[in-house]
Amino acid sequence: MSASVLAPPAAGAARWPSLPPRWRAATARAGAGIAGLLVLVLLWWAGIALLTAPGSIARAFGPVEGAAALARLLAEGEVLIHAGVSLRRVLVGLGAALLIGVPLGLALGAWRGLERATGPAFQFLRMISPLSWMPIAVMAFGVGDAPVHVLLGFAAVWPVMLNTAAGVRALDPRWIMLARSLAASRRETLWRVVLPGVLGHVLTGVRLAIGILWVVLVPCEMLGVSAGLGYAILDARDRLAYAELTALVLLVGALGFALDAAARALCRRRGG
């Protein structure tokens, strides 16, 4: 026998069986991401420690104080209610964007004349910040959830609509011809050919919409509502509870990261 066969296996190989390449790649990506987050936290801590005086108010915005306040808020449980309210508003806004944006995107992608007629108007409206509509939304719908839902739907409808239209234009014309040759009705062509074909583009639009929704949500919740993460941040500021404010900002970032990760996983699953 050769020496390589008789040689004992390496200690690491004996303890840890070889992972599949896909798992190794995922583990490497996760490790790199965690390292990047640790560097960010270290820079945050160093900035607070080096640039602020001991005992100053700015020390309340440090990562240690923020993490301690976040643990306390999670233990008390009230912040979970605010997070649930915010997530519900995001789902309502996203649902409204899908109900409006997908049919509009299908129509724009199918009829170029409609796209040419409405394109300038849609691009004009798309470039207006949703937050600039806040006073008008409050005057039209009053205070409460209604204006927040309207603003979130307005913010999210554009990526959904534009990506759906791009998906329709990217469809292989031979699929439509095949459906027609099989005497498929328009409804059957829509449900069995068009919608499955544009689903990947719609999911991409949903991921972009979720990012926009989460950014727009917090300032929307600072006006005329009594619950939500934006309201909680404003309340912490008014109470001068700066460590809680930092904790809420961390929670907003963590939830937004989780939502984006879920949307990315859905897109990868559809693509794979």
Automatic annotation (TrEMBL):
Superkingdom of the organism of origin: Bacteria
Membrane topology reported for the UniProt record: Multi-pass membrane protein
Keywords: Cell membrane, Membrane, Transmembrane, Transmembrane helix, Transport
Keyword GTP-binding in record: no
One Pfam family named in its UniProt record: BPD_transp_1
Highest classification ranks of the organism: Bacteria, Pseudomonadati, Pseudomonadota, Alphaproteobacteria, Acetobacterales
Stored PROSITE patterns: ABC_TM1 (PS50928)
Location of this chain's protein in the cell: Cell membrane
Domain ABC transmembrane type-1, residue spans: 83-263
Listed InterPro entries: MetI-like, MetI-like_sf
GO BP annotations, alphabetical order: cellular response to sulfur starvation; transmembrane transport
Membrane-traversing stretches: 32-53, 90-111, 123-142, 148-168, 212-234, 241-259
Protein name as it appears in the record: ABC transporter permease
GO cellular component, as recorded: plasma membrane
Record keyword Chaperone present: no
Natural source organism: Caldovatus sediminis
Sequence similarity: Belongs to the binding-protein-dependent transport system permease family.
